[in-house]
Amino acid sequence: MPDLTVISINDFPEHCDLTIAVGGDGTLLSVSRALAGSDLAIVGVNIGRLGFLADVTLAKLEQQLTEILAGNYREDTRFLMQASIINQDKHPVGKAMNDIVVHSHQTMHMIEFETYINGKFLNSQRADGLVIATPTGSTAYAMSAGGPILDVDLEAFVLASVCPHTLSNRPLVVAASSVIDIVLSESNRTSAMVTCDGRPGHLLQAGDTIRIERHPNQIKLLHLENHDHYSILRAKLEWGRKLV
């Protein structure tokens, strides 16, 4: 067995020309957050379930990687977002490629919060939570919450409430340049949390403000030359399947 050098993922940009992430979309999300802003391209090898982001397969691994290494690929740039908790000070929470979620924690009760877009009041609501997603994350939790699927080239965020206590609530799409503030109501008595890409989250207190905005860094994905996002949607979501 040849000698292998093991280095931290944070040191990849200094030692590597390409990163190959083997796993599901969750693995690729973790790698993307760690390498954001490094200009180091990422190729995803899908051994998970859905594989919206990682489109190289184990069955054709050698053939597909050879094509990419030969320069036959499509480059895809995705943006991220970041969250901070603002009370007396501003505390960074983390960054996300898919979504940032403010939600109830270890309870079946709803949380109460207000949402502001660029400092302007949007609404007040009671719900299990609120998902703020990038176009990349619009096919994840936000879609399950009834949000729209965004084209990955759009510069936008999706806001989708989780089980809101009103029939008039609808998902909202805003520009990715927007600053989104979610203020946990002073009257809120339910334990709440903010999570980035489903990782362990940060507990919130009544009156806390969670600020979500675009992260300054981007990530670069490499896809097969014939990569087609719509064909992936059709395959993964079973669009166009003939009814029996």
Explain what you see.
The protein is α+β, with helices and mostly antiparallel strands. It has 2 domains: about 10-80 and about 220-235, 3-Layer(aba) Sandwich (Rossmann fold), CATH 3.40.50; about 80-215, Sandwich (Tumour Suppressor Smad4), CATH 2.60.200. The protein is built from 5 helices and 15 strands. It has helices spanning about 10-15, 25-35, 60-70, 140-145, 230-235, and strands spanning about 20-25, 40-45, 55, 75-85, 90-95, 100-105, 110-115, 120-125, 130-135, 155-160, 170-175, 180-185, 190-195, 200-205, 210-225. The strands form 3 sheets. The protein has a 6-stranded antiparallel sheet with strand order 5-4-15-12-7-8. The longest helix has 11 residues, at about 25-35. The protein is globular and about 60 Å long. The model has no long low-confidence stretch (mean pLDDT about 90).
In short:
The protein is an alpha+beta fold and 244 residues long. The chain is 15% helix and 41% strand. The longest helix has 11 residues.
Helices and strands, in order, run as: HEHEEHEEEEEEHEEEEEEH
Distance between the termini: 52 Å
Low-confidence stretches: none
Number of domains: 2
Q: Strand order, main sheet: write it out.
A: 5-4-15-12-7-8
What count of helical segments does DSSP give?
5
Integer-rounded radius of gyration:
19 Å
Structural class: alpha+beta
Major beta sheet, specifics?
A: 6 strands, antiparallel
CATH architecture of the largest domain: Sandwich
Shape: globular
